């Protein structure tokens, strides 16, 4: 098993007064290596909060998060940073590319923590391989403002994949795209899951995308229910 969440609870606000709002309430989720999972749910139900907990961007109030059998909730800041950089890829609704950097520079940002020349050469070769694979290598020297939303989102996926993550987390990755690019992005994510064996957890409102996943869950009242 790659990822195991047990009895996760998370809320926001002051727990001692009426401002407190519980978002996740005793939630559990198991993700196997290479598995694809879609998470549906109304706005405000806690889907993004759940992804943030999985990816170590936030901490649960209660419960256990294990990755490859190791408890990660007690990681120090430096340990969590290393875990995210090496094991998790993130794709968001907006691509969050740096506007002043070229597409290639944006893709290589997660690799900059390693100063070893041989490693950096390998990462450059991987960037070229992935960018060619998704059809954006010819735009490597262009800045995001000169490209379409679909091209920028593909670059964001390559950036998420550059360090060979075991798990790709995607938060509404097709939400800002037109219909054609929605289909292209869905095909790309599923191809990476199928051909590269990367586990995929996608928060989406797209039922068409959800139907193509191995499992689909709906998040309601702080818990996941299998669809």
Structural description of this entry:
- With 227 residues, the chain is of the alpha/beta class.
- It has one domain: P-loop containing nucleotide triphosphate hydrolases (Rossmann fold).
- Helix content is 34%, strand content 26%.
- The protein contains 7 helices and 10 strands.
- The strands form 2 sheets. It has a 6-stranded mixed β-sheet, sandwiched between helices. It has a 4-stranded antiparallel β-sheet with strand order 2-1-4-5, with helices on one face.
- The longest helix is centred in the C-terminal third of the chain and has 18 residues, at 179-196.
- The protein is globular and about 55 Å long.
Topology pattern, helix = H, strand = E: EEEHEEHEHHHEHEHEE
Instruction: Give the domain tally.
Output: 1
Any idea of the CATH topology? Answer: Rossmann fold
Largest sheet: 6 strands, mixed
Overall geometry: globular
Q: What average pLDDT do the residues reach?
A: 92
Distance between the termini: 21 Å
CATH class: Alpha Beta
Identify the CATH homologous superfamily.
P-loop containing nucleotide triphosphate hydrolases
Helical residues, percent: 25-40%
The amount of beta strand, in percent, is 25-35%
What's the total number of strands? 10
Tell me the structural class.
Answer: alpha/beta
Strand arrangement, major sheet: 6-7-8-3-9-10
Number of helices: 7
Radius of gyration: 18 Å
* CATH architecture designation: 3-Layer(aba) Sandwich
Low-confidence spans: pLDDT under 50, at least 5 residues?
Answer: none
């Amino acid at each position: 098993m790659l990822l195991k969440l047990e009895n996760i609870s998370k809320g926001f606000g002051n727990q001692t007064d009426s401002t407190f709002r519980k978002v996740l309430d005793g939630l559990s989720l198991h993700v196997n290596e290479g598995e694809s999972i879609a998470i549906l749910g109304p706005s405000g139900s806690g889907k993004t909060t759940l992804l943030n907990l999985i990816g170590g961007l936030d901490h649960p109030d209660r419960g256990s998060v294990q990755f490859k059998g190791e408890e990660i909730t007690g990681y120090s800041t430096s340990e969590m940073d290393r875990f995210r950089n090496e094991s998790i890829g993130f794709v968001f609704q907006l691509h969050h590319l740096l506007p002043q950097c070229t597409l290639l520079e944006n893709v290589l940002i997660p690799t900059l923590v390693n100063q070893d020349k041989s490693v950096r050469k390998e990462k450059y070769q991987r960037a070229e391989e992935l960018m060619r694979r998704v059809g954006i290598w010819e735009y490597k020297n262009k800045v995001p403002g000169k490209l379409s939303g679909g091209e920028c989102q593909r670059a964001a996926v390559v950036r998420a994949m550059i360090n060979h993550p075991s798990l790709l987390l995607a938060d509404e990755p097709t939400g800002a795209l037109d219909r054609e690019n929605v289909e292209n992005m869905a095909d790309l994510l599923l191809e990476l899951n199928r051909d590269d064996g990367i586990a995929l957890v996608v928060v989406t409102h797209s039922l068409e995308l959800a139907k193509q996943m191995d499992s689909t869950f709906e998040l309601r009242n702080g818990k996941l229910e299998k669809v």
